Structure prediction request, 88 residues.
Amino acid sequence: MSTPNIHSFVEDIKSAGISIDNEQQFIKMMSNANDQGLMLSRVLRDRRNDIDFRRTRHFSDEGLAQAFKNQGFDGFAWKEFVDHMKSE
Prediction:
């Protein structure tokens, strides 16, 4: 897996209709991680952090999938993300 550009990834998922609660904390955690895929999984599973991802009314499944693909995340990371998203 290539190393994702976290700022670009955040912009891509927001463009796909995802809002991020506590975006700066997410960027910091992902930027400091040696393995962004593993960190993304930890962020999604850890209910103690204040980072949530929500579908907006402009959500595009195709756009989200493309954002993951563009940054080199695998299908497992995309599926885990989709499973943990909340609806607004």
Notes: The radius of gyration is 12 Å. The chain is about 55% helix and 10% strand. Strands lie at 18-21, 52-55, 86-87.
